[in-house]
Write a structure and sequence with these properties.
mainly alpha; 73% helix; globular
């Protein structure tokens, strides 16, 4: 890594650490931005890098919320009794119980979702193209309906977790840094992964799966591992979100297919599929767009979102990163022979 890149990442890390202290009134919005960044990067692992567009990654987010809550509650209370009393009220966590439950619940959610991805993948990766997308969406919708009828986890009323005993502002900071740590780890992991033979293999699947198989690539193994790694991080941020929201229910909060399930895809489309920075830039753009429209154009926000999607798909099919690579290739270290460029332009 060059000195210039080292300095860039050092400045970026300093901004990440300082952001909630510089803008304390926007700590929750900054935490939500990290959520968008993480789910966008994980969606791009399968949708952008591997070419399998999923509409059901929200399954792992919702499942992560419930797994984390069940683990945290189960360490202290009987889950069925707790959810039967709607949580809160007569139930409390000590600060130590809260922290331990948070850590174990978040990690447990990631592991459970990764294992779920392996199991589901054996079935769903038999589908391709739009059939895979529809299959994953159906899985997420079915999961939401099943959980909403499962009384042991609160059924349709959901779960209300006990709150942390410390200051409310401290809790917001804790949640922000939990998201930020997961996001930074994910970025470092993906930066390494996309430069390995594994990254080249999933790109080969995206470009031509039949050729990849003919060359001896065990495509199912790569697809399963990619989806499982993606599910691990989505499950973790789902677990963090459970503690952030405190009270959540299955259809509107956990398995929210028409909200976060769509948002993560839009973030990637805005920034550019199949790139490391595209989902991050797209998530930042979308968070700004969402805050403006949801606050100043309430009632028209979904119309604005629809218009944004149409404009992106029609005019910026490769997202911002793809558009910039075409306009300013030298920014990305791409050298273009001027004679060839003039010849192509003449055609």
């Amino acid at each position: 890594m060059t000195m210039q890149k080292t300095s860039f990442y050092a400045i970026l890390l300093a901004i990440i650490v300082a952001a909630p202290f510089l803008f304390p009134d926007f700590t929750t919005q900054l935490a939500t931005l990290w959520l968008f960044i993480i789910v966008a990067m994980t969606w791009d692992m399968t949708g952008g890098q591997m070419g399998y567009n999923s509409l059901g990654n929200i399954f792992f987010y919702g499942t992560g919320m419930y797994v984390a809550a069940v683990i945290a509650i189960g360490l202290v209370y009987d889950v069925g009794e707790y959810t039967g009393a709607s949580g809160g009220g007569r139930y409390d966590f000590t600060n130590e119980q809260y922290i331990i439950g948070f850590i174990l619940g978040t990690l447990g959610a990631g592991v459970f979702c990764a294992l779920s991805a392996f199991v589901l993948g054996y079935v769903l990766f038999g589908l391709r193209g739009p059939y895979f997308a529809i299959g994953t969406l159906g899985t997420a919708i079915a999961a939401g309906e099943l959980v909403s009828n499962w009384d042991w986890v609160g059924g349709g009323q959901g779960i209300t977790l006990p709150v942390y005993g410390g200051d409310y502002d401290q809790t917001k900071l804790f949640i922000y840094f939990a998201f930020a740590v997961v996001g930074v780890i994910l970025f470092i992991f993906l930066k390494w992964l996309y430069g390995t033979r594994f990254g080249a293999a999933i790109n080969a699947i995206r470009d031509d799966e039949e050729k990849a198989e003919a060359m001896g690539l065990r495509t199912l193994r790569y697809k399963l591992w990619t989806w499982a790694m993606s599910a691990f991080f989505v499950g973790m941020v789902g677990g963090i979100s459970a503690f952030q929201l405190i009270s959540f229910e299955p259809l509107e909060s956990a398995y929210q297919t028409i909200n976060l399930g769509i948002f993560m895809v839009v973030c990637v489309l805005l920034g550019g599929k199949g790139t490391l920075w595209g989902p991050i830039i797209g998530a930042i753009m979308f968070q700004v767009f969402k805050e403006v429209t949801w606050n100043y154009f309430l009632g028209w926000q979904w119309v604005a979102l629809g218009a944004l999607i149409v404009i992106t798909v029609v005019y910026f099919q490769d997202g911002l990163m793809g558009w910039l690579q075409q306009k300013k290739p030298e920014w990305f270290g791409i050298r273009i022979d001027q004679k060839e460029a003039a010849s192509e332009a003449a055609k």
